[in-house]
Amino acid sequence: MYDPAFDPLERLADRGVQIIQHQLHENDAIWIPRRNLIIVDETLHPMMLRPTLTHEWVHVIHSDPGGHYPRFESRADLISARILTDPNQWADLTKIHGDYDHICLEIGITRGQFMAYYQDQLKKAA
Predict the structure, then answer these.
(1) What strand order describes the sheet that includes 29-32?
(2) Is the pTM of this model over 0.85?
């Protein structure tokens, strides 16, 4: 499912989703389905825009309701991590780094995506 060319801005535009920046206090972004809108926190680091919008794109394609529900958040983290994570790069980095923040930055995923992908890899190995 890894897609190095995945562009969440393009995919969201194809679905007519509007993206705006605004101050958010607790989240990097929120999906508001009734307005077909994603609000991205204005303080979000540019390096985190692609993984954050990929996560929100998963909410869009699954027609998730607004709000943060653990089941939907977990699914969005896992699917977006699978799209953004090169399995070979993952294998290489997890062999040499114990610091998952470093791995997140190298791959370009969030901590939530890292944890979802990590748990998924453990399940596959079992």
Answers:
(1) 18-22, 37-41, 29-32
(2) yes
